[in-house]
Amino acid sequence: MADPQSPLPTNPSWERVQLARNPKRPHSLDYIQRIFTNFQELHGDRAYGDDHSIVAGMAWFEERPVLIVGQQKGRDTKQKLFRNFGMPKPEGYRKALRLMEMAAKFSRPIITLLDTPGAYPGIDAEERGQAEAIAQNLREMSRLGVPVIVVVIGEGGSGGALALGVGNRIYMMENAVYSVISPESCAAIIYRDSGKAALAAAALKLTAPDLLGLGLIDGIVPEPGEGAHTDPDNAADALRMMLRIGLSELSGMSGQELIDDRYEKFRRMGSFFTEPML
Predict the structure, then answer these.
(1) What are φ and ψ of residue 231, in 5° steps?
(2) Residues ≥6 apart with Cβ < 8 Å to 153
(3) What DSSP letter does each residue of 222-257 carry, written as one string?
(4) Residue 42 confidence (pLDDT) above 50
(5) Is the per-residue pLDDT at 103 higher than 90?
(6) How far apart are alpha carbons 251 and 146 in whole angstroms?
(7) Cα 26 to Cα 33: distance, rounded to the nearest angstrom
(8) Non-local CB neighbours of 73 within 8 Å, separated by 6+ positions
(9) If residue 148 lies in a helix (H) or strand (E), which one and from where to where?
């Protein structure tokens, strides 16, 4: 018989989901402010409008010009509405792609910061081609002849995050999560009960250590204390160091080598056989 005084079993995966969603957690603009200089935000997709859930622009990383593309959540109600709760619409992905192609034209490395519960599922987004915009980003990012570094800084939700996630190097903050579906939605489908989200989180293998073990990411950025929200400056310093290492590793590669590297990286994902099956 279980001891009623014994502590309840912990669920590290669900705990990290909660940390990734912490309202005080640093967002893209917080890292941009601390790591990059002379950030000049650019707007619009030149087709429909501007999407404030994605911030993008040119900046300097130490002594090197780069393009930054980040998904931005809001903190208070006004900001959350302005940023659409960090859920991009098609014009956001088209804006990002327009600027990534511009960066490739001028041989500037691209750094993307992922932090979204998912792409916006509203009717207006579907009418303007949400699925097509995501698919086009996946295709075109695989063809960019410049270094692409992806960092999951909070929630990496489904195709909404993956649309900016095709990189040569993929890193995750220690308490970030990256998954094809949210734990709540997974629980609703698998267990017919969204209240079992913690159980689904463990099954999804969505934490940074899980994904590093599966070979889906290239490194984990350590966080201070009880999470990045407890010391944003320290978290930014750790991310700066990881970006420096990634750019150094990729700087000597030609455009075609970068494309081939990215292609082989994603072709290996999900392949666990070394010999053909009989």
Answers:
(1) -155, 80
(2) 25, 26, 27, 28, 31, 113, 114, 115, 173, 176, 228, 239
(3) ---TT-GGG-HHHHHHHHHHHHHHHHHHHTTS-HHH
(4) yes
(5) yes
(6) 9
(7) 11
(8) 27, 53, 80, 83, 85, 86, 115, 116, 154
(9) strand 148-157
Query: CA torsion 138→139→140→142, rounded to 10°?
Result: 80
Cβ neighbour number for residue 181 with a 10 Å cutoff: 17
Q: What is the pLDDT of residue 7?
A: 46
Using alpha carbons, select from 34, 142, 135, 153 the residue that is nearest to residue 86: 153
User: What is the tens place of the pLDDT at every residue in 5-35?
Assistant: 444 456 889 999 999 999 999 999 999 999 9
Task: Enter the tokens of residue 221.
Answer: 């950025």
Q: Please give the structure tokens belonging to residue 246.
A: 């990634």
> What is the radius of gyration, based on Cα positions, of the chain?
19
Residues 247, 147 contacting (CB under 8 angstroms): yes
Q: Characterise 213 by phi-psi region: left (phi > 0), alpha (psi -120 to 50), beta (else).
A: alpha
